[in-house]
Design brief:
The chain has 86 residues and is mainly α.
Length: 86
């Protein structure tokens, strides 16, 4: 699964690099404008993927911090139980 995510992350970036590379653009104005359109499209795909990854990262971060909060509460309860038990 991690390999799939890495491939998905790399694919838009590679696409942008290919489209923006000067050797791939022709000197003709019509082809240059098509290249710019493709470049903008690839860039928007890349930015959308980047935003999706950022949202997922924040979601995972929130879940981790919520779990840490629960662990801290349980640790406090256990410490209290040990203190009262002795």
């Amino acid at each position: 699964m991690q390999g799939e995510v890495e491939q998905q992350q790399q694919a838009p970036m590679q696409m942008v690099l290919r489209v923006k590379h000067p050797s791939s653009l022709s000197s003709g104005s019509e082809e240059a404008s098509e290249g710019e359109g493709s470049s903008r499209s690839a860039l928007s795909v890349f930015k959308a993927k980047e935003e999706q990854i950022e949202r997922k990262k924040m979601e995972v971060r929130d879940k981790v911090f919520a779990q840490l909060g629960r662990v801290e509460e349980e640790s406090k309860r256990l410490a209290f139980i040990r203190q009262v038990g002795t």
